[in-house]
Amino acid sequence: MPATRTKRGIGILALALSSMLFSVFVADAHGYTTAPVSRQMYCADGTVTNCGEIQWEPQSVEGPKSFPKAGPRDGTICSGGLSRFSQLDDPRGGKWPTGAVTAGTATFTWRLTAMHATTSFRYFITKDGWTGTKPLTRADLEPQPFFTKNWNGRQPGSTVTDTVTVPSGKTGRHLILGVWDIADTGNAFYSCSDVRF
Which segment of the chain is annotated as a signal peptide (predicted)? Predict the structure, then answer.
C-alpha cells in the first residue's frame, strides 16, 4: 500500500513538473510583428486593455501552417486558432489602433523570442472595402501574399527585418497578416496588424 502511494505521488509530481516545463517552454516561444505594430504588441505594451493571456505572451500565437489552404479556421486567424488568445479575433467594433502605411517600400519587423528553422515570412493584406468590424476570414484577404521572403530552412536571429513593397491602390483601413512559416514543425506564427493608408 505505501509503495503504491509513493508511486502515485511520484507520478503526480512528474506530471506537475512536466506541465511546468511545458508552460515555461510555451511562454518563451516564439515571435510577433513590431512593425507594423501587431494586435498582440498593443496588448503587451498596454495600449489596448482587456486582452487576456496574450498581454503576457504576445509571441505565442502559433497555429497550423499552410495558410490559406490550411491553418486556423476563418474567424480565428489572428489568434492562430487558439481560444485562449481569442481577444485578438475580437474586432472591437473596428477600434483597434492603426499604424500609418503608404504604398511602396516599407520596413516590416518581427521580434523573435525563440528561433526556428524557417521556410518563409509572408504578408497578406485585406481587400478593398474591409472595415475591421468582424473577425478576419480568408475571404477578407487578397488571395496571394503581397510579399514573401524565403529562408530555405535557415534559422533567423532575434530580429527579422524585411524590406517589402506595400501594394498601391489601397486606401483607408486595412489589416496586414504576417505569417512566419516554420520549416521543421507543422506550425506557423500569425500576427495581425491594423493599418491605415
Answer: 1-29
Neighbours of 168 (CB within 10 A): 9
Residues in CB range of 110: below 8 A, 6 or more apart: 31, 32, 33, 34, 121, 156, 159, 160, 178, 180, 191
Residue 21 lies in a domain: no
Q: Is residue 19 part of a domain?
A: no
For cell 479556421, name the residue: 73
Asked whether residue 186 is domain-assigned, the answer is yes
Name residue 193's beta-bridge partners: 176
The CATH number assigned to the domain holding 79 equals 2.70.50.50
pLDDT tens-digit series, residues 144-196: 999 999 999 999 999 999 999 999 999 999 999 999 999 999 999 999 999 99
Residues in the chain: 197
CA angle 85/27/188 to nearest 5° reads 60
Helix (H) or strand (E) holding 194: strand 187-196
